[in-house]
Amino acid sequence: MKQNFDIHRDIWGPYMTMITNLWAESVFKSINRLQELDIHLNNTLGTLPGIDPRTENRPRLTEGGIFLRRLHTTPGDKKKVRYFDLCADEYELATHKFKSRFLDRAFEILETQVENSSYILDAACGSGHEMLKLRQLVPQGEVIGLDLSEGMIKRAYRNAKLQRQSHVGFYQADINDPPPELTGHFDLVFCNISLHYFETVENVFHKFHRLLRKKGKLLIIEPLGSATQKLSENVLKGAIPHFKRFYRWEEQKQLLETAGFTFQYWEEIQKDIGLTIAST
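Above: the chain sequence. Below: its structure as tokens.
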């Protein structure tokens, strides 16, 4: 494992960081956001309904301020995230520039979808960078991060502690086996650039549906599976052993509806990066 990781760190890691950052820079200079999408959707952002204000007084999981709950036993499929454990300290630095290009637009949309008191889950939260931005949107709510990688979840917890965050919580857990106390707890599930790591997206969407309350929202940010991205999948599998594949927005829509979601909105927030919103 260590020898394989050294190859990924010293060869694939710098290569993929360079490629994604160069691509992000070129996209940023040439981006022409699509206002009229040739997809058969009637919703526009201006008419897309946000989350209904909460009428019941649900307890927060984070009344103590901040917590980290780690797994007591190592799951059988832990190897699939071992690389993330080993590179947690470098991951945020390697991906920050790439993600920052489209997250600004994503959070403009997110602001229309939450209330001050909303409860949000960041599924596959990684080092927690987006979690801290989500927390700013819900000053009277809470944000929970979930990730199977012990290295990533510890890094996210440390980042939150350094910024003196409150009402944030962290679970080391598999999204296919979430803690039972999370069922029906959330107003919004946020999943950013992670679908292509999941073994069975169909099962993951069913789990997301169970974690949301009635009229809750799921917001997904994911590469579109363009022709260029499809050509790069073999390279990505070499660089990231647990990479599976990209899902085009049409596939996402079908899988979401199969899981019981109502498809509401889609936008190409950056070239070849799509944002999808669905509701329970």
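DSSP finds eight helices and eight strands in the chain.
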